[in-house]
Design a protein that fits this description.
The chain is α/β, with parallel strands linked by helices. The chain has 2 domains: 155 residues, 3-Layer(aba) Sandwich (Rossmann fold); 79 residues, Arc Repressor Mutant, subunit A (Orthogonal Bundle). The chain contains 10 helices and 13 strands. The strands form 4 sheets. It has a 6-stranded parallel β-sheet, with helices on both faces. Strands 1-2-3 form a 3-stranded antiparallel β-sheet, with no helix packed on it. The chain has a two-stranded antiparallel ribbon with strand order 7-8. Strand 2 and strand 3 form a beta hairpin. InterPro entries: CheY-like_superfamily, Sig_transdc_resp-reg_C-effctor, Sig_transdc_resp-reg_receiver, Tscrpt_reg_LuxR_C. One of its GO terms (molecular function) is DNA binding. This is Response regulator transcription factor.
């Protein structure tokens, strides 16, 4: 492949089965119940770039995304070089990129894409559940890490999750990261950036929210489970960012796992 593609293979998008009173619609694809307040609507779908050196994988992912009216493939690329041109020339909301491209590391494209479009979300793709690769992707600002051959992967759901403030992590990897350190106390002493000891203290509610974020839930879903508003959830998230010195949910999960906060 010598250039990026500006359209995806043809697919007939699914439309809502029916609108429901209360401001939400029912879709055939998961997540089936979809509020009108969420990003990704049939009249304003999320624009997705797919970058993977395997043309077959690109086609499978693109077909799934184009089969749902909440997402649209804005462009495809098969190399780091073409991926750089793609994110530069065509607007996007979410970037799906393989960590191992034919002419370089997908991590380089993640960093480049975030520098050009800080508000866009990035989901790293991989053939393997590698903790180190996942951590590196999170450190670069990725909001998801998806193993391409996982039985549980849904690219539509992953895109919708990250675009609405959640994290998309392959279940087995998420479980491993959560259990890696085991249960720990709410207050921790951790090494700071200059070697000094830093005290981290999260409230019980902040711990609950952090664990749900690590499980891939959005603010709205967390609010439903905890019987609080999404505004309150976002307030807890903001407090965690300040305490953990991070700027994204994926970074918070990565940081908390490294320091034994999960």
């Amino acid at each position: 492949m010598t250039d990026y593609e500006c359209r995806a293979p043809g697919a007939t998008p699914t439309v809502p089965i029916r609108a429901q009173p209360g401001g939400f619609a029912i879709f055939k694809n998961s997540p089936c119940v979809w509020p009108e307040s969420m990003a990704g609507q049939p009249d304003s779908p999320l624009r997705v770039h797919v970058v993977d050196s395997d043309a077959h994988v690109r086609g499978v992912i693109s077909q799934e995304l184009m089969g749902d009216s909440r997402t649209v493939v804005a462009g495809q690329a098969g190399s780091l070089r073409d991926g750089r041109r793609l994110v530069r020339d065509l607007g996007f909301d979410v970037l799906l990129v393989d960590v191992a491209l034919s002419d370089g590391a997908g991590f380089d494209l993640m960093a480049h894409a975030k520098s050009l479009n800080p508000k866009a979300e990035v989901i790293a793709l991989s053939k393997h559940e590698t903790d180190d690769d996942a951590m590196r992707a999170f450190e670069l600002g990725a909001a998801g890490f998806v193993v391409k051959n996982s039985w549980f992967v849904s690219f539509v759901q992953a895109v919708l999750q990250v675009a609405n403030g959640g994290a998309a992590i392959t279940p087995a990897l998420s479980r491993r990261l959560l259990l890696k350190r085991g249960a720990s106390a709410a207050t921790h002493s951790v090494p700071g950036p200059s070697g000094e000891v830093v005290r981290i203290k999260l409230s019980l509610r902040e711990h609950e929210v952090l664990r749900m974020i690590a499980s891939g839930l959005t603010s709205s879903q967390i609010g439903d489970k905890l019987a609080i508003s999404s505004t309150t959830v976002n307030s807890h998230v903001k407090n965690m960012y300040h305490k953990l010195h991070v700027r994204s949910r994926a970074q918070a999960v990565s940081c908390a796992n490294t320091w034994g906060l999960l």
